[in-house]
Amino acid sequence: MNIPVKAALFDLGGVALHFRGIGRAEAEKETGLPPGTLRRIAYNESFALANLGVYSHQDWLEAVRRDLIAEFGTTAGAAVEVWAKDPGELDEDVVAVLNAVRARGIPVGIFTNNTSGLEGDLARLGFDAFDTLINSADLGVTKPAPLAYRLAVEAMGVPAEDIFFTDDHHTNVIAARHVGLRAVDFVSAPQLIEDLASCGVPLPELVPDTKAESRA
Question: Which pTM was predicted?
Answer without folding.
Answer: 0.93
